[in-house]
Amino acid sequence: MGVNLSDIVPVQTMELEDLSGQRLAIDAYNAIYQFLSIIRGPDGTPLKDSRGRVTSHLAGLLYRNINLLEAGVRPAYVFDGHPHVMKTQTLVERSERRSKAHEEWREAITEGDMERARSKATQSSRINNEIVESSRILLTYLGIPVIQAPEEGEAQAAYMAIKGDVWAASSQDYDSLLFGAPRLVRNLNITGRRKMPGGREYRDVHIEVVELAKVLEVNGLESRDQLIDMCIMIGTDFNPGIRGIGPKKGLKLIKENGTLERALQAAGQSIPDSDVIREIFLHGERLDDYSLDWKDPQRDKVVSFMCDEHGFSEQRINSALDRLERKRPAKKAESMPASQSSLDRWGS
Amino acid sequence: MFHAKIKSETLKGVVDVVSTLVDEAKFNIFSDGIELKAVDPAHVAMVDMKVEKSAFEEFSADETELGIDLDKIKEVLRLSRAGDIIEMEQDEAKNRLVLHVGNITRRMNLVDTAGMSDPKVPNLSLPAKLSVTSDELQKGIRAAESVSDHIALNATPDGFEMYSEGDTDSVSLKLPKDLLISLEVTEKVKSLFPLDYFSNMVRSIPAGSVVTINLGSDFPVKLEFEIADKRGNVNYLLAPRIESD
To answer: Is B92 inside a domain boundary?
Structure first.
C-alpha cells in the first residue's frame, strides 16, 4: 500500500535502543494491519477469544508497546479519519483483493495446503470497528496517547513530526515522506527474525530510518513538491499512476522537466485531478488540537481487558507488565520528566 | 588520491572518537590533513574532528572524500599491535581502500558518500567554560551509572559538579575551582544529559587528556580535546534532555 520508493530511498538501520527517549507518531491502522497479518496460527487463522472476536492485534499492540516503552520510546498512535474521496478506487480494490484472498484461504484449507492458507490469510486481514475500538481501549489503558486524525493517519503523524512534537512518523508506507515527515521510521513493529512472504526463508528485520532531506539530496530533487510530483506519476493511494512509469523513470522525467505538468507533457500523458492529489499531500486536513500525554499504565484494567474480556493468559500478561514496572522506577526518579532533545533544535 | 602511513594506536584513537556515534563516516581528505563531521542517527550528538598531516608518519593526498565502514578499520586494528605502522592507500579505479599492516593486506570497498552530507555545526554561545582531566569525568560517570540513566552538569563561579538522581539515591562529584585546570563561569548554569551518550563519548577521549567543557542551561554541551598526540582536535556536541513543557 502506498507508493513504493524502496529502490530510491537511502535508509539507516537502527536498533530499538537507539530510539530511546524519542517520541514517535505511529500510523495506527498500518500497525494494526501488520499485527493482523503476522499474528496467526499455522493455517492462517487469527487469534480469537472465546466469543470469536479477533485478538491478534491486541497481542501485537500489547507486547510491542511494552517493548517500546521498555526501550524508552514514547509511542503515540494516530488513527485514520474519513478517507479522502480520491482514495475510493484504492479502497474498493483493496477490499476486493482481501475478499479474493479470503476465498483462496478457504480453498487452501479444504485442500489442506497450509503454507498457501497462511499466505492467503495474511493478505485477507481486515480492520473493522471492533478491532479499532479494542485497540483504542488497550492503548488508553497502557497510558499511550491516541489521536484521531481528521483524514489520513499518516498525514497527521507527519504533521506532528513537522511541528517537532514527535521525532518521527512511523509507518511502513513511504507516503509519510510525501506528507512531509522529516523522518520516517519503518519496521518498528516487525523487528527481529521474520519469515519472508511466500518462502520459507528467514531474515533479520531491522528498524529503518529514512530522512526526507536525504531522500531529496540523494536523488537530486529540489523539493518535496518534486517528490510528490514524481509519486503522482508512478501512482499513489489517490491515483493509479501511469503504466510503465516506475520510480526510476518517474525520477528522470521530473528531474528533466521540473514539474509534473511539464513531465506529463513531455511524456505525452495526462493525469486527471493531479492538482487535487498534490493538495492532499501538501495541505490536507490536519489537526493542531491534540495532546501528547504519556501516563502510567493502568495495570488492573489492562489485565482485566486482556484476560477476563479476551481470554489471554493472566500469567503471560502479568509477566509482560512486570517488565514495565521494573523499568519505571528509574523513570519516575527523574525529578523532572525530561525528554531528549535533538541537535536539530540548535540549527544542526 | 590518498596515501598515508599511521601508527596503529593513532588510527585507533581517531576511529574510536568517530565510531562512538556512527558506524560509517565520510572522511574529507585535504593535502594538509583530514576532517570529519558526523552526527549520530538520532541527531543527539555530533563529532567535529580535524587531524593534521603531521599526525601521520607519511601523508600525501589531493582533496577527496572517503566513505568508510569503521568496523572494517577496527578489524584491521585488531590484527595490529601498538607501534605497528598501518599503511592506507586509496584504489581509485576500484573505489576501495587498501590497508597494509605487517604482511597483511586488507582491501575494503568504500561506502557511497552520496547521502552523507556534512552536518551543520550549530552556532552556540555557551556562557560557561571550564577544563578538567578526562579521568575526573570518568570517575563522575562511574559514580552516576549506578544511580540513574542521566547526568546533570552544573557549573558555578566556584566549581563544577556532575550530579545524578535516581529513584531513591543520588550521587554527586564536586570539583571546586582549585581542582579544575581552568574555570570561567560568571553565573550558574545547568543542563541534563543522557548518561549512555555522555559516557560513550567520554570513554573515547584519550586517557590523561584535558577536556574543555562549554556549558549553558538547557543547551548542548561542547567537549573539546586533543587526539593523535596533540596533532588532532575533536569537538563533541551533545544535546540535552529538556523538561517537557
So the answer is: yes
Q: Which of B56, B74, B109 is the last residue of a domain?
A: B109
- Provide the residue type at B11 as one letter: L
What is the rounded CA–CA span in Å between residue B216 and residue B228?
29
Count the domains in chain B.
2
Q: How far apart are CA A173 and CA A211, in angstroms?
A: 14
Q: How far apart, in whole angstroms, are the C-alpha atoms of residue A261 and residue A101?
A: 38
Place of cell 477476563: A308
Q: Do residues B63 and B132 both lie within one domain?
A: no
The CATH number of the domain holding residue B100 is 3.10.150.10
Q: Cα A53 from chain centroid?
A: 23
ipTM of the modeled complex: 0.84
Q: Which of B44, B126, B191 to mutate to test the interface with A (most CBs of A within 10 A)?
A: B44
Lowest mean pLDDT across A87-96, A243-252, B29-38, B73-82: A87-96
Q: Is residue B117 part of a domain?
A: no
Co-location of B95 and B132 in the same domain: no
CB < 8 Å to A209, chain B: 41
Domain-located, residue B50: yes
- B-chain residues near A328 (CB < 8 A): none
Q: Which domains, ranges and CATH numbers included, belong to chain A?
A: 12-214 (3.40.50.1010), 220-283 (1.10.150.20)
- Summary mean pLDDT of chain A: 86
Q: Would B120 be classed as within a structural domain?
A: no
In this structure, are B98 and B151 located in the same domain? no
Instruction: Enumerate residues 6+ apart whose C-beta is below 8 A from A36.
Output: A46, A54, A56, A57, A60, A125, A126, A127, A131
Q: Does A288 touch chain B (CB under 8 A)?
A: no
Output the DSSP codes for A47-105: PB-TTS-B-HHHHHHHHHHHHHHHTT-EEEEEE--SPPGGGHHHHHHHHHHHHHHHHHH
Confidence of residue B23 (pLDDT cuts 50, 70, 90): very high
Tens of pLDDT, residues A201-256: 667 788 999 999 999 988 999 999 999 999 999 988 888 888 888 888 999 999 99
> Could you say which of A18, A338, A347 has the minimum Cβ distance to residue B120?
A347
Pick from A218, A342, A345: which is nearest to B115 by CB?
A218
Together in a domain, B172 and B203: yes
Strand B221-227 relative to strand A23-27, pairing: unpaired
Q: pLDDT tens across A35-86, in order? A: 988 888 877 888 888 888 899 999 999 999 999 998 889 999 999 988 787 7
CATH number at residue B225: 3.70.10.10
Phi, psi angles (nearest 5°) of residue B236: -105, 140
State pLDDT tens for residues B153-166. Answer: 999 999 999 999 98
What is the interface size between A and B, counted as CB pairs within 8 Å? 93
Q: Measure A118 CA to nearest chain B CA, in Å.
A: 37
Residue of B nearest to A336 (CA): B243
Is A293 an 8 Å CB contact of chain B? no
Record the cell numbers describing residue A236, joined without a space: 499513489
Domain-terminating residue out of B109, B141, B158: B109
Q: Which domain does B188 fall in, by range? A: 128-238
Task: Please compute the mean of the pLDDT values over residues B122-144 and round it to a whole number.
Answer: 93
The helix-helix angle for A274-283 and A224-234 (nearest 10°) equals 130
